Amino acid sequence: MTNNEGEAWGGVELDRAEAELRQVLAVRMQRAVPADLVVTTRTEIEKREFKAYGQGWRDRGEHEDQRRRSAAALRSQSQGPGPGPAAPPRRDAGGKILPFPQQTPPPAASPHPHPHPPSARPHPSDDDS
C-alpha angle 85/89/92, rounded to 5°? Predict the structure, then answer.
């Protein structure tokens, strides 16, 4: 096993750890580990998620800019030659921040599937005392 003593992972040490992990998996699975198996860290996954989230906002901003330019061009064409140029497209001061979805706990189960269970009726054999 590797001995990193708190050092940052990377380079040869990471390659050696990945090779050891693949070896352990192969022994446990009792077959060869697929070549396309990806080994990564939680930090790397989070970094990629945040990068994709930011890219999504950049894409939306570019889309909104293009939509505004198209709308301004259509307005200027419909007005024809007039007293002055069309107003420049208006830009928003900022965008809304969308929170990442949070997992909500499941609703508490009621003690009985029916909210008001019927009361038990006496059995006819109960009268035979």
Answer: 155
